Amino acid sequence: MTEKLLSELTTAQVGGPAKTYVRATSEAEIIEAVSAADAAGEPVLIVGGGSNLLVSDEGFNGTVVHIASEGVEVLPIPACGGANVRVQAGTIWDDFVKLSIENEWVGPAALSGIPGTVGATPVQNVGAYGVEVGEFIASVRTWDREKNTRKTFASADLRFGYRDSVLKRATVNGSPRYVVLTVDFQFTLGSLSSPIRYAELARSLGVEPGQRAESALVREKVLQLRGSKGMVLNPEDRDTFSTGSFFTNPIVPRSTLESLPEGAPNFPVVVKTSPFTAGVEDPDHVKLSAAWLIQHAGFEKGFGLEGESREIAQGRASLSTKHTLAITNRGGASAEDIFAIARAVRDGVRERFGVTLVPEPVVVNGEI
C-alpha cells in the first residue's frame, strides 16, 4: 500500500490523492484488496487503465485497487468450434486486440486503439465503428462484493446495452458490486474481419458496408482514423490526454426529431433480445449524434482554449482541436477545469435543443 495521485492513473491526467492505493497483480490479490477494504468499511474505487475515469481534485477518501493482473489463455474446449479465450482483467485491451489478429480470432479488429484494460470492456460494453465487445464475450468471472464469493455471468445474463451492462448498473455504496476478474471470449477463426458496419471505415477500406476485409487492414485503418481524431494515446499530442468521447450519443423518443433542425442526423436503436440474434429496431426511439448537437449548439473544436467565460480557465482544458466529443487536458488542467468545459457544453446543448447529454466517463467525487 502506497500513496498515489489519481492523475498518475488516468489518461486525462487529473485527480487528487488516494487515501490508500493497492496494485493487485493477480486474481487473489484483487480479491484480498477489495475484501479487506470492504471489511474495514472503506470506500472502494476500482481502476484499470483509467481511460474512462475522472476523479475530483480532492481525490478519493478510500482504497483504490489498481487492477494489474495480466495473461491470455486459450481454453481447451474441443466440442465448440472456433477459439475460446480467457483473459485476465488487467490485460491491456489493445495488446489483446493485436494478439487476436495474429491468431485469426475474428471480431475485435474494429475495436483497435481503445485505451484501457480488458476488465473494463464488458462493464461499459465498449464499442466503436459499429462493433461492441458484447458480441463476442462468452462469460465474465467476477468477485461479488455483496456475497463475498466468485460469480460467473453468461453473456445473456450481462444484459448488454449501449455502453451499458448489469455490471455497470449493480453497485455497493456507489461503487461496482461485481469486480471483473477474467473475461472469456468466443471467436470464429479466419483472416477476414466481421462485416464492416460503419460507413467511414468501409470507405477507408474500399469496401461496401456489410462486406468483410482483412482484419490486419481493418486494424490499420481504425488506428489511422482514431489517430486523426486524437483518440489513440500519444504523449506528443495533447488532444489524446482525455477520456475519449466524453458524451454518449443520446437515445431519445422519436418525437424529439420534430423539435430538431431538418437534417439532424439520427440512427436506429437496435434492441437485442438474445446475444445470438441481430436484434430488432426500436420503433419509438432514435439515437442522435452528440458531436453534431455539440457543434450546432455553437461549440467548435478547441472550445475553451481562449477562456470563453470566467468559469473556464484559459487554455488549461478544452474540447479537442480535432473533434468536438473529447474534453482534453492541455497541460496543467485540474479536474474542475474539465468539469467546467463539460458543464458549459451540456448546458449549451440542452438550451439549444432540449436534449441533455450524458457523460460517458465515470465521475468520482465530483459533479458535472
UniProtKB/TrEMBL annotation:
Localization per record: Cytoplasm
Active-site residue list: R163, S245 (proton donor), E360
Catalytic activity: UDP-N-acetyl-alpha-D-muramate + NADP(+) = UDP-N-acetyl-3-O-(1-carboxyvinyl)-alpha-D-glucosamine + NADPH + H(+)
Top-level EC class as recorded in UniProt: oxidoreductase
Pathway terms, separated by semicolons: Cell wall biogenesis; peptidoglycan biosynthesis
One of the protein's GO biological processes: cell wall organization
GO CC terms, sorted: cytosol
Domain FAD-binding PCMH-type, residue spans: 14-190
Cofactor(s) needed by this chain: FAD
Presence of keyword Flavoprotein: yes
E.C. numbers: 1.3.1.98
GO MF: FAD binding; UDP-N-acetylmuramate dehydrogenase activity
Signal peptide: none
Keywords: Cell cycle, Cell division, Cell shape, Cell wall biogenesis/degradation, Cytoplasm, FAD, Flavoprotein, NADP, Oxidoreductase, Peptidoglycan synthesis
Biological role: Cell wall formation.
Protein family per UniProt: Belongs to the MurB family.
Listed NCBIfam families: murB (TIGR00179), PRK13903.1 (NF010478)
Descriptive protein name: UDP-N-acetylenolpyruvoylglucosamine reductase
Taxonomy of the source species: Bacteria, Bacillati, Actinomycetota, Actinomycetes, Micrococcales
